[in-house]
Amino acid sequence: MDLVVYVPVAPRLGETVSGREFRTVPGGKGTNQAIAAARAGGRVTMIGAVGDDDFGPRLRAALADSGVDTAGLRTAPGPSGIAHIVVDDEGGNSIVVVPGANGTVTGLAPGDEKRIAAAGALLLQLELPMAGVLAGARAARAHGVRTVLTPAPARPLPDELLALTDLLVPNEHEAEVLTGEREPGRAARALLDAVPEVVITLGGAGSLYAARGAEPVTVPATRVRAVDTTAAGDTFVGALAVAGGEGRPMPAALAWAAAAAGISVCRPGASSSMPERAEIEAAAAG
C-alpha cells in the first residue's frame, strides 16, 4: 500500500513541513506493473503476497478490479508491504519501502510454475527476496518465457539473474548503480555484456533502447506537465510488455509505452493513475 503525502517541497533531514494532502493508494512495483499491463489490454496473473492486515483485502481487490488474476497471490501472516512516498509540487518523489508480506516470497508456490509457463512474458522487480526472483526467472527460462526485469530498488545483481534476463529496464540511477557509468549510452553498452536487450528510462528525456548487434534507439517522452511521477516507470514497463507481446517493433512499442507513462504522470497516485488501453491508443495517435 502506498502511503502518499503531497507537499510543496520535500523536507530535508531534520526538517518538518506541512503537507496539503494524504492518500492511501494500492501500489508496489509488482502490483503497479500488473495493473498497468492489464489496463493496457494484457491478460495478467499476479504472483506475490499480501498480509493478513487491513491492507491485504484492499490490495487484492485493487488487482481484481483491474482485471488481474489473483489466484497466485498468497496471504501471509503479518503486515502487507507499504511504501511511504513524498511527492512535491514538481511531481518528483522520494520513497521508503517496507517489504512486509513481500519478504515471505522466497520461492514458487504450487501452481506458480504452471502460471509462468502459460505466459508470454514474466515481469520481475526487486521488491521480493532475491531467492524468489531467481525462482521465477529460472521457471521462465525453463519454459521459454521472456523475462523483463526492472532492477528496482537498485542493487547489484547476481550473474545468474542477469543471465536469465531477456530485457532489462533500469532508470538512469539504476543503470549507474549496475555499471558505474553515469552516461546512459555507456551504461547501456556495459549492460549488453550481461543481457541481450536494455531499455534505460530517462524521465522527461524519453528512453534509450540498445540490443546486441543493433544501433541504439532513443524514443522521446510525451510532453506533459507532471503532477506525480510515482508510477511512471511501472506504467511504462507494463505497457511495453503488452506492446511487445502483440508483436510491435521495439521503437513503436517504446513510443506506445511512453504515451501510457505520459498519461500516468498527469494524475496523482500510482495504480490509480494508470490509463486504460483506449486512452493509450488516443494519446499515441495524437
UniProtKB/TrEMBL annotation:
- Signal sequence residues: none
User: Top-level EC class, please?
Assistant: transferase
For this protein, the record's Gene3D superfamilies field holds: 3.40.1190.20
Please name the GO terms that the record assigns under molecular function: ATP binding; metal ion binding; ribokinase activity
| Residues annotated as the enzyme's active site | D234
Q: Which reaction does it catalyse?
A: 2-deoxy-D-ribose + ATP = 2-deoxy-D-ribose 5-phosphate + ADP + H(+)
The entry's K(+)-binding residues are: D228, T230, S264, R267, G269, S273
Cofactor(s) for this UniProt protein: Mg(2+)
Indicate which residues the UniProt annotation says bind substrate. G28, K29, G30, T31, N32, E127, D234
Q: One short Pfam family name for this protein? A: PfkB
Q: Summarize where ATP binds, as residue positions.
A: N171, T201, L202, G203, G204, A205, G206, G233, D234
Q: Its Gene Ontology biological processes?
A: D-ribose catabolic process
The Carbohydrate kinase PfkB domain is annotated at 13-276
**EC number(s) on record?**
2.7.1.229
Q: What is its main location?
A: cytoplasm
Output the superkingdom of the source species. Bacteria
The UniProt subunit note reads as follows: Homodimer.
The UniProt entry's sequence similarity note says:
Belongs to the carbohydrate kinase PfkB family. Deoxyribokinase subfamily. Belongs to the carbohydrate kinase pfkB family.
Protein name per Swiss-Prot or TrEMBL: Deoxyribokinase
The organism encoding this protein is: Streptomyces hainanensis
Its gene name is: deoK
